[in-house]
Specification:
Length: 237
């Protein structure tokens, strides 16, 4: 079975937009696990516009499934991960001012740098996943870094599949086959949703884990809003 790790960044975005502690990030993390999710993912950014560094620390006592921290391995991020010691760290090459992740690593050009980072996390018994596009050369490069897994960047698949192009899965399936042959575990994430997740999972061999946040939270709002509206109406009778 492919594991679901729920990215709770958007919960933090909502909280930060109003101040205070509503919604309660820690309670959401606890409840998501209680509902059956096998992991919690966060992606703290340098400006802390959603997940704050202190959130990462506070979640240590709440996450009892797999704890996955994503981010660009700059010094502050590395220090945070080494302090929190999550189950997994996912290395993502996002720029400081990026709205969201928009590309995988060039694992060939960045091989020596990534090797150094991966080695540091391995010394601290943290599993390492490298965020990559479904390009075979980048998968081979990820193997050379010493990483344990890759995370396939799935935005292109999600966009094309939404247009009816099922062939968009082909490079991802090929990438997963190669990764498996090289002994790399396969994770995936970005714009996966209720609309496309079953097709993706059914066509990717040995898919270990998906990290889903934006779509899952948006779908939760929509699928739950009728119930909440009626709860208010009942209290106002």
């Amino acid at each position: 079975m492919t594991k679901l790790s729920v990215n709770i960044n958007k919960i933090a975005t909502l909280r930060n937009s109003r101040g205070g502690n509503v919604p309660d990030l820690l309670k959401v993390a606890a409840d998501v696990q209680r509902f059956g999710a096998q992991g919690i993912t966060i992606h703290p950014r340098p400006d802390e516009r959603h997940i704050r560094y202190q959130d990462a620390r506070d979640l240590k006592s709440v996450v009892y499934t797999e704890y996955n921290i994503e981010g660009n391995p700059m010094d502050n991020f590395i220090d945070l991960v080494l302090e929190c010691k999550p189950t997994q760290v996912t290395l993502v090459p996002d720029a400081v001012n990026a709205i969201t992740s928009n590309a995988g690593w060039d694992t060939v050009k960045n091989e020596s740098y990534l090797k150094e980072v991966v080695s540091e996390f391995h010394k601290n018994h943290i599993r390492v996943s490298v965020f990559v596009d479904p390009v075979l050369e980048m998968i081979e490069g990820a193997k050379k870094t010493g990483a344990d897994r890759i995370e396939l960047y799935t935005e292109m698949f999600a966009h094309e599949y939404g247009l009816g192009n099922e062939k968009a899965i082909v490079p991802y399936a090929n990438a997963a086959v190669l990764a498996n042959e090289l002994g790399l575990g396969v994770n995936a994430g970005h714009d996966l949703s209720l609309h496309n997740i079953a097709f993706f999972k059914n066509n990717i061999p040995d898919l270990l884990e998906v990290s889903i946040g934006h779509a899952l939270i948006a779908e939760s709002i929509y699928l739950g809003i009728e119930n909440v509206v009626n709860m208010y109406l009942n209290k106002l009778k």
